[in-house]
Specification:
By secondary structure, the protein is an alpha/beta fold. The chain has a single domain, classed as Alpha-Beta Barrel (TIM Barrel), CATH 3.20.20.70. It has an 8-stranded parallel beta barrel with strand order 1-2-3-4-5-6-7-8, surrounded by 6 helices. The structure holds 1,3-dihydroxyacetonephosphate (13P).
């Protein structure tokens, strides 16, 4: 059975002092959580701070991006090895903000994913369509291409370590959420695509997260859908109260 995985993407928010405070607060509010995997993804500068606070509990830590070489003259980049040295075990790859502002492509997403897997970091790959693409009726074509591009040369064994986050761009930071039915429809499509790329057992094991204006008020109805196994939360994860409410919604469905 798949377990719920709730990840908080802090984006470019929180200094180290703020990160410490927020992590302590999240930890304090989630002591009764047993079945839901929680992942905190702070900015790279706070990875070590957050990791050191959660090292005695089940909360995992992830980075928001990485480069596909172990070291070298790549000013401003960080490697998988560096991320792991902080205690983090996950990495978000190909978030739409990185695709939009920092030139991530399906090809670089694939390179990053392969390198993360090779070095034992667990990738959370983000995919999603723009509003124009949805209105044109090409959502599934876009997701199909993003999945094929990101998952090139990945084996079924590696695939089960991956999380796929479906984040419709039009729902990110806009307060506009996909309806549970819209999200479920896309998630079912993604799972069917994974079955054709790998096999049924693999596609049934992969965690599929929804992201885009997930809040305590809509989390339960989204997470209740058959193929939604978690959430990648932006704005609502910056407060311990709202993030823990989303985690509790998942726990109540476990
Ligand atoms: P919001 O929850 O703020 O819409 O952000 C979603 C997101 O981009 C998570 O990666």
């Amino acid at each position: 059975m798949r377990k719920f995985v709730i990840a908080g993407n802090w984006k470019m928010y929180k200094t180290n002092a703020e990160a410490e405070q927020l992590t302590e607060a999240i930890k304090g509010k989630t002591t009764s959580i047993e079945k839901t995997q929680i992942i905190i993804c702070p900015p790279a500068t706070a990875l070590e701070t957050v990791s050191s606070i959660v090292k005695d509990c089940e909360i995992a830590v992830g980075a928001q991006n990485m480069y596909w070489e172990s070291q070298g003259a790549f000013t401003g980049e960080i490697s998988s090895e560096m991320i792991k040295s902080t205690g983090a075990t996950y990495v978000i790859i190909g978030h739409s903000e990185r695709r939009q502002y920092f030139y991530d492509t399906d090809e670089t997403v694939n390179k990053k994913t392969l390198y993360a897997l090779q070095t034992n970091l667990n990738p959370i790959i983000c995919i999603g369509e723009s509003l124009e693409q949805r209105e044109e009726g090409i959502t599934k074509d876009i997701l199909n291409d993003q999945l094929e591009g990101a998952l090139k040369s990945i084996s079924a064994e590696q695939m089960i370590r991956l999380i796929i986050a479906y984040e419709p761009i039009w729902a990110i930071g806009t307060g506009k959420t996909a309806t549970p039915e819209q999200a479920q429809d896309v998630h079912a499509f993604i799972r069917t695509k994974l079955q054709s790329l790998f096999n049924a057992a693999t596609s049934n094991s992969v965690i599929l997260q929804y992201g885009g204006s997930v809040k305590p008020t809509n989390a339960y109805d989204l997470l209740k859908q058959n193929d939604i196994d978690g959430a990648l939360v932006g704005g609502a994860c910056l407060e311990a109260e709202s993030f823990s409410e989303i985690i509790k919604a998942a726990e109540s469905l476990s």
